[in-house]
Amino acid sequence: MEGSILDSLGKELIGVMSPVSICMLLVVLLVSILSPSSSFPSSPTPTPIVTAANLVYSENPSDSTTQKFEGALLNAAVFIVLIAVVTFILVLLYYYNFTNFLKHYMRLSAFLILTTMGGAIFLSLISHFSLPFDAPTCFLSLFNFSVLGVVSVFGRGVPIIITQTYTVILGIITAAWFTQLPEWTTWGLLVALALYDLVAVLAPGGPLKILVELSQSRDDDLPALVYEARPTVSTSSGGGRRNGGLGLLVGGVSDNSSVELQNLATTIGNHSNEEIAVDDERERMRNERSDDQGETIPLVVANSSEIGVVDEERSPLVEMVAGEGRDGGDGNEEAMTAGIKLGLGDFVFYSVLVGRAAMYDLMTVYACYLAIISGLACTLILLSVCRRALPALPISIALGVIFYFLTRLLMEPFVVQTSTNLMMF
Amino acid sequence: MTVAAGIGYALIALGPSLSLFISVIAKKPFLILTVLSSTLLWLVSLIMLSGLWRGFLPFKSTAWWPYAILVFTSVCFQEGLRILLWKAYLRLEDMLDAFADRLSKPRLFLTDKMQIALAGGLGHGVAHAVFFCLSLLTPSFGPATYYADRCTWMPFFLISAIIALAFVTIHTFSMVIAFNGYAESKRVDQYFVPTVHLIAGMLTLINFAPGGCIISIPLLYFMAALTLIHCGKMAWRRLVDEQRRGITLQ
Question: Which sequence ranges are marked TM in the entry (chain A) (predicted)?
Answer without folding.
Answer: 12-34, 72-96, 108-127, 161-178, 184-203, 363-383, 389-407
